[in-house]
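Question (not urgent): is this output format expected?
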Amino acid sequence: MKSFAQSGESCLSALFLFKYYLNPQALPVFFFGILIFALGIFLFFRDRKTLLNRRFLYICVSVCFWLVPTAIGYCAVDPHTAKYWFRLDNFSVGFISINVFVFIKEFLGKKINWADKVGYAFIFLWGLLILFTDLHVSDVYRYEWGFFPKWNALGFVLLVFFFAYMMHSKCVSC
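Got this back:
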């Protein structure tokens, strides 16, 4: 499957409404993505000065930008458009784990160090590879309920990063 650049089609073409249908399986995913975002906004505006609230908002934004593009990918009528949205959702997944880790450190009163910043830089650069190449999301599977992303072998890197930070979050809290 060609990327947007290779097909000559603009990334903006994924925004056309005729490229989607109302998929009932996508509605709960979309609803909870928006609900989690609203929860983060609500808590952030209760006390904007608290760094802990800001860190929680970052988690909620990451989860929202994982679930909402996933739901939109489920609603796509063609594999090319679905792949675009699944790349966007995979970009966000890595930020969930690092944001949870930094939130826990903040909650425990521990300092954010250079290694945490390197983690953010790594996942951002990896996310750019996810967005603009076929090295991670190579294609999509077609099911009766919609599309689902097909990962290449390099998808394993994102899983290792995600679970390493989640396990490290558990260890920091011990």
